[in-house]
Amino acid sequence: MILFSLIYFLLGFIHTLLCIIIAFPVYPFIRIFSKKKAKYWVHSMAKVWGRVLMKMAFISFNVEGKENYNPNKTYLLTPNHQSSFDIFACFSIFKKSYAFVSKDTYGKVPLIGFGMSLANYIFVKRGTVGAVKSIDDMEDRLKNGTSIVIYPEGSRSADGEIRKPKRGILKIAERCPDIEILPVVIYGTRDIMKAKSIKINPFRKIRVRFLKPFYLKDIDGDDNAKLNYWYEIMSKNYNEVKNGK
């Protein structure tokens, strides 16, 4: 597997450079005619980038609950987070236009961060001012018809189990009460590459389950009750998917 991992990272690096070489020079020409289409061009290249990286590792998908996901609607998409491959998985399962919410450290990565900015993705910055700006950006995307992909747990789960969501999701839901939250269970990415490891395990299958969307404003109780609702339905379905039910 070490040899495969080395080859994978080499080919992945070349693939990343090719996507950048194709995406960046075309962007300014499309932007002359449409800023929106220019952003979608970079986003489309990012989807190609992520999907090819999955295919390079010979990863397959089993997707359940497709009837709960309408790509033509605007959602707050809330998958769980186990591995760096969750990002590639999201590029593979989510359709049309959406914006990722990412730590601002990724925005500082040469070329990658610039590409994320061109695609209109959102960087979460530490501190009160930075947090407010991030919420403002999310509200702007949602109200303009662009779905948001955010990991409510905040960071990757060390043991793979679902963790309770951070309170940031409450603030977004308060700003956009008429936007549905779509919980998405992703299982299997941790088997491809564990946290703090560079070893790639190919030929794995990822199981995805779209749960029924809901409005956070419809959940009875205080803020903790609303957060627990997401946590409980995600944990229940995660365990079912994990056990093959």
UniProtKB/TrEMBL annotation:
Residues 75-189 form the Phospholipid/glycerol acyltransferase domain. The keyword Cell inner membrane does not apply. InterPro entries: Plipid/glycerol_acylTrfase. Coiled coil: none annotated. Keywords: Acyltransferase, Membrane, Transferase, Transmembrane, Transmembrane helix. It comes from the Bacteria. Pathway: Lipid metabolism. The keyword Lipid biosynthesis does not apply. Pfam families: Acyltransferase. One of its GO terms (molecular function) is acyltransferase activity. SMART domains: PlsC. Signal peptide: none annotated. The chain crosses the membrane at residues 6-30. PANTHER family: 1-ACYL-SN-GLYCEROL-3-PHOSPHATE ACYLTRANSFERASE. This is Acyl-phosphate glycerol 3-phosphate acyltransferase. It comes from Brachyspira murdochii. The lineage of its organism: Bacteria, Pseudomonadati, Spirochaetota, Spirochaetia, Brachyspirales.
